[in-house]
Amino acid sequence: MKEPQAVRRSNLSALFRPNSVAVVGASPTSIWGRQALENLKQFGYTGKVAAVNPKYEEVLGYPCYPSIKCMPFVPDAVLVLRDSSSTVSIVEEAADVGVRAAVAVAMGFAETGAEGAAAQARIVNAARTAGMAVVGPNCSGLINWVDRVPLHAGAVETRRPGRVALFAQGGGPKTSLLGNKRGVRWSHVVSCGNEAVTGIGDYLGYFVDDPNVRAICGFIETIRDPERFFIECDRARAAGKPVIVLKAGRTEAARKMAAAHTGALAAPHRLYRELFRRHGVVQVDSFEELLASAIAMQSRRSPADGRLGVAHPSGGLLQLILDDSAKYPSLTYPDFQPDTVNALRSLLPGYVEWKNPLDSWGGVASLEDSNKILEAVARDPNVDIVVTHYDPNQLGTGNAYEQEVFSGSAVKAAAATNKAVTLVTPLDGSTPPEVVEDFLDKDVVVLGLPEAFRALDRAVTWARPVPPLAEEPPIDKSPLAKRIAEFGGRSVAGKPALDFLAAAGIPVVGSRFVTSVNAAISAADEIDYPVVVKIGDTDVLHRTELSGVITNLRNAQEVSAAATKLFEAGSQVLIIQPYVREGIEMILGLQTDDVLGTFVLVGQGGIWTEIMDDAALRPAGLRVGEPEQMLASLRVQRLLQGVRGAAALDIEALVDAVRRLDAIARSFGDQLRSIDINPLFVRENGVVAVDALVVPASSTNDSHRR
């Protein structure tokens, strides 16, 4: 039974902001049982608190009851600190009396096998019947610093709430990020566990709606409900709240580990990567990058178009900045406008080059000089992000005043402009967290090399508007639907596959299908030489692996010999085609994942597909400009454009073929496991598909079957 959206929101509020809490398993002698109550006391939680344990009448000054049913009030939320077998009955009891939210800490559920999965199913059934939100099981709980709510198994520090929320599918990553010393202060932290009832899409939705949250971070092993999750990602983007994700499972070994850890089944990482890109999720590759991005993207200042204006006192460090920022095409160094140059000329010695980036060494003698230089840069209409130097390692030395000068100028510039202002330190993590936090309060971001410009690049890219969904090319869908039905769930190659593509408007090579040697010769004479002879049986899906494609046959004798060879090998039908030579071989395809949906692929084709691994992938439903972006990302793009005197090929025709394949995916993706068009020749005028394989969603064909 699917709970209504209004109930879901209400119970999430009871989870994060309960008016009353019961700690089941509380005990003065148990580490966890005692700590959970101490957390509530130390946080200054203002709601009702009760302990549940038949051994005691009070614990740490809180009243204690034998069971939830024996309590004089129904708590909004319960924190369950019992083993797995007891946890099931406690959640069922809580659901019976009307508890709206629960945190189940115990391990031993779906992550352990069939018996644990059955126990977890009981929790799911009880919670969904009652409409109850449940964190876990197999988790450490949640912390809400904003409303002073720690429903957590383990000690928790009281601290000033931040503006960044975190959900983590893993206790270790959660703990590491929770205790970071980089200056990221959290508003909320959730340890997700098995997500039996309430998942990352629910938490994400709650954070999107919470006005105290400015940015959302996540450590993800898998996404159990992609549709819900990405809907919330779209809502977050619309609300101006970046979603920053570190996704584990980039290797097969890590994906298997995810299944053993939380019972999660993870799809291939490249599919996640493209979905993140589509829905504006900022994907990072490390904890350091996640924290740097969180610092940069919780700022109230927009990075706009990423035009940097840099004033720096060290030529050596400025070279490193140029090297590092050059990795990110979203970041540029525009020329200063004449008014800026004139202002700098009046402030700096004649040997200084008055250009962007500015090496101001020797030109800053006082705070007033520094203020004027940075103000001139900040006023420049060509500048979106003001960058200057800060090195906390020099504090306490003879150069301490110098650092105070630059940081003071940054604060003054931030107060005088609405542009993003960034202090870049030579060593990442060298700035004390409280200093980073203090600068953030003054709208100055502190980032260290090498993460600084990567984080700024993420911020600039995220801030760009998302292109609209591209219009579909006009395609009659009825013939396509009819042909899919005729496939009868069987994978097909040869004539049925090519006819299917032709029905979608994708050009295919002219083919003759013959059942005798003489017919093969007649067909070749009609087509004109040279020709290709290949196996035409529709259930032979990979002809090349069976040596079933013989090319560049130049006369009747060669065709006769080739046809005889293939018929004697067992073929019943042969295909005779023109031998297409000119152009570049490409591969086009569809791939449907059972969880994440359908994707469109284009890349270098023919025998080079696996060797070069040069392909681009996007979720079906391409947006305006995406086919062109896919092609631009390929190494083979230079050949398509024409190099060393070669003619440029018909890229527009290739883009049209990609768009038509996307149209197939939009309407029939759930009925197709894959389409493989390889090769598709891109020529000076037009494209032509030479071979194809269509695999319906229900196909059980052996891919090498004859």
Question: What does this 3D model show about the protein?
Answer:
- With 706 residues, the chain is of the alpha/beta class.
- β6 (101-104), α4 (114-130) and β7 form a beta-alpha-beta unit.
- It has 24 helices and 30 strands.
List the helices and strands and how they pair.
Elements: H1 5-16, E1 20-24, H2 31-43, E2 48-52, E3 58-59, E4 62-65, E5 77-80, H3 84-97, E6 101-104, H4 114-130, E7 133-135, E8 141-144, E9 149-152, E10 164-168, H5 171-178, E11 186-191, H6 200-209, E12 215-220, H7 226-238, E13 243-247, H8 252-262, H9 269-278, E14 282-284, H10 287-297, E15 308-312, H11 315-325, H12 338-347, E16 358-359, H13 367-379, E17 385-389, H14 400-416, E18 420-425, H15 433-441, E19 444-448, H16 452-463, H17 477-487, E20 492-493, H18 495-503, E21 512-514, H19 517-527, E22 531-535, E23 549-553, H20 556-568, E24 574-578, E25 584-593, E26 597-604, H21 608-612, E27 615-619, H22 626-632, H23 637-641, H24 651-668, E28 672-682, E29 687-689, E30 692-696
Helix pairs in contact: 3-4, 6-7, 10-16, 12-13, 13-14, 19-20
